[in-house]
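Retro notes, item 3 of 5
We never archived the inputs for the arginine complex last cycle. Fixing that now. Sequence and ligand:
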Amino acid sequence: MAKLWGGRFSKDTNKLVDAFNASIEYDQRLYKEDIRGSIAHAHMLAKTGIISAKDGKAIEAGLKKILADIEAGKFKFDVALEDIHMNVEARLTEAIGDAGARLHTARSRNDQVALDMHMYMKKEVTAIMELLVKFEEALLTVAKKHDKTLMPGYTHLQRAQPITFAHHLLAYFNMCQRDFRRLQGVWQGADIMPLGAGAIAGTTLPIDRFQVAKELKFAEVYGNSMDAVSDRDYVLEFLSATSLLMMHLSRLSEELCLWSSTEFGFIELDDGFATGSSMMPQKKNPDISELVRGKTGRVYGHLMALLTTLKGLPLAYNKDLQEDKEGFFDAIDTVKFSLTVYRDMLLTMKVNKGEDG
Ligand code: ARG
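Structure as it came back at the time:
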């Protein structure tokens, strides 16, 4: 299939280059945002008279059909079309003809991908905050049940003073509240609309960025087009907030591993949330805690990877920026999964109320 940028090329791309260049395998996750963003862009192009109202309507209907096809699993993504933006647009043009190609007027994939990422970020941060609240509720539920359950408090991992189990868990509750506030900040940092920056320096066409921002519910628009297409601070802020959140879960993990050992014996994990050993049937292993502790390193890694990707990048867009996605998506999945499984594990674990803990 002809490439969106194929105009000056007289030869097909090498197959290896297609495979190496493509992000479609992972950026297809952005399909909803890509299509919603394109519909808002088309509305704006039609309202400002840059394209005809008829083209605008055909584009919107075509995009909605593509959305339905993707959701029904009927859309075939093509690696040769590189990414979600070109896959959607090629299909649109195939379906509605020239009007489809006019959708890209006054737009570049550089500002398009930035828009998709901002929208996706706001959606996923909201979902993570909801899971975090549920996790906090679980901490409160268990703490409430054990506000008289005594246990040793430790400093230097040596018994220090008697505390209650609730006291200990509520320390994590407070950490989560700070995580929540940080995520609110991440959401706000992403609430800025980059479309209209074009490839680097905007466009001479009379676009209306504020209309797009309003339709897509963004509080403001970028002030500098070069910043708009090369900014990934909001992804770094997300990775740093989630690194801290995972660090908190990881510290709790370490405690649960210790507490569930025979040596401590403070808790027993529910059978549904532990694993056994075929060779050593006496064992009950705290795999979930261990894995959450282990996966924390993965999220830190994504933060370091993106910081490193950005550190030497000249303005504005460079293809290196495509590397922002896999770590970001993986961090989202890791945090969401960890919070969900952890919540149920806490609610089902048994806390031993013995005199000594
Ligand atoms: N898939 C690309 C990315 O994620 C989209 C932008 C491509 N822009 C370009 N000029 N090649 O970064």
